[in-house]
């Protein structure tokens, strides 16, 4: 290996060094996405990963796209489409060709797109779509080789994170939604609080309850209700960050643990979730038009509480304050003197 190639490889290892600390697949995918965008001098990009529940694909990370650009179901059944057969290796597409091949996930593409599959044991377990790669002007082959090397590194750590999550899933994954279950909450909340104390960073907790959800079960049956909860879970995952933890607490209740999120940041995330759920058409694939809203409570460490139990209690109380008044609202513990 010549000196320049060796220097490039060292730089790539440094670029992916943060992967060592990550044990969640979406966090690994997000780190890889940001590294690729930096390496390629790109404008924006997103990554999809295969889910363990359905073996379909879902959005894992994005940068440079507005939240409104993703409905959440663009990638359902992606692996069954003819275009998925094209993902055997890294390829570059002009905007016209990309739109023709990947129309429903092109999102009005006007730039050249670099598509890089993430392989695990010779099977595609994820795909990066990188838009507007300025660094391709010049030595295309060497930049493409570097990008593929980086993605191979991501694939190694992604496989480890997936195996860790599979082991975790025996006790801590909800079988309906593929989210974490209530048993996981005290464990992750205690862990994140310890990290917050050490780093002197805030930590926020959201408590969510779907409004009038019993009507869905009454009108359409429990199976349809279950599918609506799965869709709600997709929305939650789409509007949180890679290192956040989304938990199905029970029934139609969810919690979200938000490390390094102030009360203001947590409220902004909660508002985006509230708006997305209100605008979403549930059970569309079952030819139904179901509209739902959600009440969300917010509590923050250290402003509101210092223990996991107190944070959960205050977030729960804030949620119920919203349910007892307007519904379809975000209420915080601090704003309503619940401490």
Would you kindly provide a written description of the structure presented here, covering whatever features stand out?
With 339 residues, this protein is of the alpha+beta class. It has two domains: 3-168, Beta-Lactamase (2-Layer Sandwich); 180-332, Reverse transcriptase/Diguanylate cyclase domain (Alpha-Beta Plaits, 2-Layer Sandwich). It has nine helices and eleven strands. The protein has helices at residues 3-15, 25-40, 95-101, 140-172, 184-199, 214-220, 222-238, 263-279, 308-324; strands at residues 44-50, 57-63, 91-93, 113-120, 123-131, 180-181, 203-210, 245-250, 253-259, 294-301, 330-332.
Features:
single chain; 339 residues; alpha+beta; Beta-Lactamase; Alpha-Beta Plaits; 9 helices; globular
How many beta-strand runs? Answer: 11
The CATH topology of the largest domain is given as: Beta-Lactamase
For the record, the CATH class of the largest domain is Alpha Beta
Fraction of residues in helix: 40-55%
What is the topology, as strand order, of the major beta sheet? Answer: 6-8-9-7-10-11
Major sheet attributes: 6 strands, mixed
Can you tell me the overall shape? globular
Structural class: alpha+beta
The CATH architecture of the largest domain: 2-Layer Sandwich
Beta-strand share of residues: 15-25%
H/I helix tally: 9
Query: What count of structural domains?
Result: 2
Query: How far from one another are the termini?
Result: 63 Å
SSE succession: HHEEEHEEHEHEHHEEHEHE
Q: What would CATH call the homologous superfamily of the largest domain?
A: GAF domain
The gyration radius over C-alpha positions equals 21 Å
Overall pLDDT score: 84
Low-confidence stretches: none
